[in-house]
Amino acid sequence: MGLTTERVTLIGAELADEVGLEHVTMSAVARRLGVKDASLYAHVRSLDDLRGRIALLAADEKTIRIAEATAGRAGRDALVAYANAWRGYAHDHPGRYTATQIPMEIDPELVARATGPRRAIELTYSMLRAYELAEPDLTDAVRLMRSTLHGFVSLEAAGGFAHARPAEATWLRCLDALHTLLEHWPADSSQGDPA
Fold it and tell me: What CATH number has the domain bearing residue 154?
């Protein structure tokens, strides 16, 4: 049948985009491939292993999209390109996107060899470099940005924006607000009053 780990993973990823990651099962993937369930276990160890591989595939794809979008850009221009690439990937590949956002049980050696997650971190920190934030503010800014982007695309996908104002207009305003906040990052109030 020409089964490989990569083919099984890709079919699982395509299925995730069609029916949702939570509905991807070994039986569903086997049916799509026209094989018996047992045939898959020569290529993936378990459903968790398959879902983890889908997550790594998606991380690679999303990272490539973001890298291409942000190449040669800086500051607000890079932030908007980064965010639009993130959102575009989430729209185009909803099941794969879900896989990138939840912890997966997978072989640590496979994760260590994967370039997508590591490259995603490098791209994010590189894009934020223009805002001249030092640690721990840089880590906090990364978390804020991820929370904002993930929150927006998740609510959007779930039909959470029922207001008449177009979601696209709100998206652009959110990116403007995020850029302004990153440029004017507040002092750490947990350190107390420096008086």
Answer: 1.10.357.10
